[in-house]
Amino acid sequence: MTKIIALLLLLLSSTAPAPEIIATPVPFTQSQVKNHFQAPLWDRGPGHRGIDIAINTSSPIVAPFDGSVFFSGEVVDRQVLTLISVSGLKASFEPVCGLQPQGTTVSKRQVVGVFCPPESGYSMHCDDCIHFSVRNEYGYLNPLLFFGELRPAKLTR
């Protein structure tokens, strides 16, 4: 009996923390998702590693979680903003101009950027959209998972 109680106490004391709940970077509905996440079959394979959200270009971009600015600047021909949470989750937005420099601490729902039209040579997936991606140390994740927008698959007969 003592071993069972000790095992239960060990299990209760080593529970994993709850997963992060993230806020949407801009208010949106499913109909505003113009291109959905498509996982690549291998690390460098083709796919769509985020979602494209049609937005009002004057809408501010907000931090989906508490964290800090990991990167803010130009990548090839567009502006990119990447935030990192305290647990290492990264959220990236493009084309978005960051309002704070790298290393700045941000709070969930704090305005962190604005839509930034890309250079003329860049071809966007859709007009007036931002690309939003989420990744951890293992790779890219479907952002809709963090908003409760996806339901588990169900086997049917």
Task: Please give a quick description of this structure.
The protein has one helix at residues 2-13; strands at 33-35, 51-54, 60-62, 67-75, 78-85, 90-94, 96-98, 105-106, 111-115, 129-136, 139-141.
If you had to describe this structure to a student in words, what would you say it looks like?
The protein has one helix at residues 2-13, and strands spanning 33-35, 51-54, 60-62, 67-75, 78-85, 90-94, 96-98, 105-106, 111-115, 129-136, 139-141. The chain has 157 residues and is mainly β. The protein has one domain (20-147): Glucose Permease (Domain IIA) (Distorted Sandwich), CATH 2.70.70. Strand 10 and strand 11 form a beta hairpin. The radius of gyration is 19 Å and the shape is globular. Residues 5-19 have low confidence and may be disordered.
Spans with pLDDT under 50 lasting ≥5 residues? 5-19
Total number of strands: 11
Top CATH class: Mainly Beta
The helix/strand class is mainly beta
What is the beta-strand fraction? 25-35%
Report how far apart the termini are: 44 Å
> What is the string of SSEs from the N terminus onward?
HEEEEEEEEEEE
Helix content: under 10%
Mean pLDDT metric: 82
